[in-house]
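Researcher: I'd like a structural prediction for the single chain below. Treat it as a standalone chain; there are no partners to consider.
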Amino acid sequence: MKIDCVGGGPASLYLAILAKLREPAHEVTVHERHAAGTSYGWGVTYWPDLLADLYDHDPDSARLIEEQSVCWRGGFAYVGDRTTAHDGDPGHAIGRHRLRTILADRARDLGVRLEFGREIGSVAELPGAHLVVAGDGAHSGLRTAHAAQFGTRVTTGANRFIWLGTTRVFTAFTFAFVETEHGWIWCYAYGFSDEHSTCVVECSEATWTALGFDRLGNAETLRLLEKYFAGLLDGHALLGRKDIESHAQWQAFPTVTNTAWSHGNLALIGDAAHTTHYSIGAGTTLALRDAMGLARALGSAAGPPDVPAALAAYERERRRALLPVQSAARHSAQWYENLPRYLALEPHQMFALLGQRHSPLLPYVPPQLYFHLDQAVGRLQALRWLKQRLGPRLARTLQSRRAADRA
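Model: Treating it as a single chain, here is the predicted structure.
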């Protein structure tokens, strides 16, 4: 079987690895438009359950990923001049470049062909391929060329964010909320190596414009953000992308959905198929699990793969798995878009609701009341069960009533 993966990110590389492990005779090529060794972004997060899945599918690459990751537990939140800590579950982070290097080296060792510096704009450029996998990101060119067939829909969030690095190494997941003369601005920070951390900064569109970020260049943006987060950074610098000098990479988050994940022999994987808001830290995990799902679907047949049937099975499995994650991401994004609603709480209360931001019921209950109810529910098993069963149903009812009132 001839498989061409377009895009050299974790989804494409891991699919190439798994396809070769299942059938060494497959002819697998990964096409990356950037030059070899080029990688943008800072660190990515994942959780212990993903690591277990990686060991199940390819222990060799899993061992290297674990060895070159950092592990942290719990977190801190700085709200103005107030601080609170939370002892939470352990998490992992690894540099995006390091992750891609591990996967690329492993794929090459297995006989995968890696091609760099060429952009694939059409399936027609890959003659003879039994399967073409579009793993070229949220702005996928291959998907865009067939947007009508995929039923692609892209909606953008209300807030602005920028993905940065810093030389301060955080040993726990850290949040900082800073009040400026034009509203609140906040960041999420976590270490991913012995030298660097990721620092994602976010604010409302109104605050972004009023602070002048829509007009500032890259260097000026970094210096102003360093001023606002001086207490958090403790004298360390913020770092932007080295290939960009003139402008800062502020974005409004694009939520990508598709009514179909395949068209002919072209399949979507990772961010090309779906995106989930960065505040839940699931993008890389979902991309790798897409690769596991597609490889499993292709390898389930006794003879040569029935590509249409495999793609249909892959889509069914991954859509089901994505539903709770997409719901959590949607509510998480809305929590930050309505941040002023929670800022009057004490820091420990706000941090507790930050951990509950995936709840569909939270937007409909006064924050102070929700905090106390959640504390009570946490102490009683019967109430926990009731919350899990009735919470989403009650939230849908309240949402419907709110929509009817607007109409």
